[in-house]
Amino acid sequence: MNRPTDTARFEAVALPHLPAAYNLARWLCRNEQDSHDLVQESVLRAFRFFDSFRGDNARAWLLAIVRNTFYTIQREARPHAADLGFDEELHDPSATLFADEGLDLNPEALLARKDLRERVNEALRQLPCAFREVVVLKEIEGLSYKEIAAIAGIPLGTVMSRLARGRKLLAASLGPGSTGATSDAMPRHPGAAERLH
């Protein structure tokens, strides 16, 4: 690899997608420090293998590396664990992931919206990782089914199945009448990832 040229190309192609990479890492890891470590490791791997990048979708490519790095680290750390367990430490009510978007609403509506966001965040954090990653990639990052299939390395039908099950689990966790409200409480791409930090 021609380092100066490739470094500049890597910075131009891959680094603009760091907010999305961090967003996915945060939802996978469910804590700040591990998310930073995961993104750092993923970017190092992405740079190391940048010669192999031939596509035109650097965002999906980087997110796939983040996802694969996460599962590699999980397998190495806990070879018999399929998923992270529920972590009480991560459910700090002060760590709201979805920031208010500056909507001009009355205090009661703002409070209700904040409460809903916290409930959605909590429900999303509790989803099994396989469902959580698909919901995050679709609902927050706004990726297509095809892109998610490529990132997760699963068939298109599995993406749709996991998304449907993830949505049902979210709705069940939030209670009756929450389906429409749940989707309203989730930030959408573009710019969704930036609002989570």
TrEMBL record:
Task: Domain (RNA polymerase sigma-70 region): give its ranges.
Answer: 17-75
Sequence ranges assigned to domain RNA polymerase sigma factor 70 region 4 type in this UniProt record: 118-170
| Protein's UniProt keywords contain Transmembrane helix | no
Keyword terms of this UniProt record: Sigma factor, Transcription, Transcription regulation
What InterPro entries does the entry give? Answer: RNA_pol_sigma-70-like, RNA_pol_sigma-70_dom, RNA_pol_sigma70_r2, RNA_pol_sigma70_r4_t2, RNA_pol_sigma_r2, RNA_pol_sigma_r3/r4-like, WH-like_DNA-bd_sf
**Example GO biological process:** DNA-templated transcription initiation
The Gene Ontology terms for molecular function here are: DNA binding; sigma factor activity
Residues annotated as region Disordered? 174-197
Task: Fetch the PANTHER family from UniProt.
Answer: RNA POLYMERASE ECF-TYPE SIGMA FACTO, RNA POLYMERASE SIGMA FACTOR RFAY-RELATED
This chain's protein is named: Sigma-70 family RNA polymerase sigma factor
State the organism named in the record: Variovorax terrae
